[in-house]
Amino acid sequence: MFEGFLMDRTDTSLIALRRILRATELHGKELAQAAGLTAVQFRALQIVAETGSATAKAIATRMGVTQATVTALIDRLVRQGMVERQPSQTDRRQVNIVPTAAGQRTVEEAPDALQQRYVRKFEALADWEQAQIVATLERVAAMLDAEELDASPVLATGHIHGPDDGVAGHPAQRPGPKPVAG
Amino acid sequence: MFEGFLMDRTDTSLIALRRILRATELHGKELAQAAGLTAVQFRALQIVAETGSATAKAIATRMGVTQATVTALIDRLVRQGMVERQPSQTDRRQVNIVPTAAGQRTVEEAPDALQQRYVRKFEALADWEQAQIVATLERVAAMLDAEELDASPVLATGHIHGPDDGVAGHPAQRPGPKPVAG
DNA sequence: CTTATTTTATTCGCTTAGCTAAGCAAAGGT
DNA sequence: ACCTTTGCTTAGCTAAGCGAATAAAATAAG
């Protein structure tokens, strides 16, 4: 290959990618700060609020962590009055985590500046431009995640999709992110 | 999913974005696991190895955390034989963190599967496709990060291409993202 | 030159987040 | 009725982060 400029383009794309990551990373903190919760807590609350109720298992799967982690996480959310535990009647092993009024409000009122900014700008684009962006993003995503990899719209905070988006699918592979050992 | 009517293009693009984030997130763990370090540790080691030496302050600034955090982080890297502390002669307050041979090797040999996969696929694309991807990614990045945002190629780890690709630059501004409160 | 201020790193105590391993209780199978 | 799986919790550990309090060196004032 012509090392010269071909390489340059690869670099450029990597850097753009990095900017995207960085922006989202910072956004997470920003958003959590505004809501008075940590990013992880907010994420869990979001999942709960999205469907109105979720089991610990479901949350763990969605977040890619173990149940034990979720237990502690929910403890904190309960302590802050964001969610409540409701033992399920259909299956008494399970516990349904439901948002409190405050929790629901928190999620709904979260500024989510980043996404709003993005959405605003995206929707201001011409039709063909939008189409092109979608096509490219999907292509890049495919290049990165190689195998299929559950892409539930976790980024989507409020509004976006309807209330009862089943979300069911969730191959739930990736049993545990298995982070490094000590 | 309900791509039918509920899923407009904005949604689709957000989901693609989310896939990209997710892939990178997982990649961080993967990479760290291969290197025997956590993602954060690896990142710090990377910074140190990049320039051959860095003060705690510099690392803190680059990573956007406090010095206290860096101290503990470096402790762990020292314990693992990845870096060493070398008191500076020019300014006896500061401590230069330098990589050990093992640490240097670790950074250089890090597989960085994600990036390699991406680069491989990217470079297999037709010329116009590459150009289009670059243009779109930059556009999206601009939509997301709005303001300035030091976009140094931090993603670039073992870096596929040549040994001495510039990379130097690093404005090293970014006074400190002042991460979320606790 | 002496004193005050700022800078750099560390230590201490605490919180969040993550894991594994053990355990209990409810559902299901055979 | 007995195992087995499933769902959640507890307990104990590590990593990562913070702020506050030092300690020591480098600067700035005086």
Notes on the structure:
Two copies of one chain form a homodimer. The first copy, chain A, has 182 residues and is mainly alpha-helical. Chain A has a domain at 3-111: Orthogonal Bundle (Arc Repressor Mutant, subunit A). Helices cover 58% and strands 7% of the residues of chain A. Chain A has helices at 3-35, 39-51, 56-63, 67-79, 101-109, 113-123, 127-145; strands spanning 54-55, 83-87, 95-99. Chain A has a three-stranded antiparallel sheet. In chain A, a hairpin with a 7-residue loop joins strand 2 and strand 3. In chain A, helix 1 packs across helix 2 (39-51) and helix 2 (39-51) crosses helix 4 (67-79). In chain A, 36% of the residues are buried. Mean pLDDT of chain A is 74; it is low at 1-7 and 147-182. The interface between A and B is large, with 70 and 67 residues. The structure holds a DNA duplex (30 and 30 nucleotides).
Descriptive keywords:
homodimer; 182 residues; mainly alpha; Arc Repressor Mutant, subunit A; three-stranded antiparallel beta sheet; elongated; disordered N terminus; disordered C terminus; DNA-binding
Assembly level: homodimer
Shape of chain A: elongated
Ends apart, CA distance between termini of chain A: 42 Å
**What's the CATH H-level superfamily name of one domain in chain A?**
Winged helix-like DNA-binding domain superfamily/Winged helix DNA-binding domain
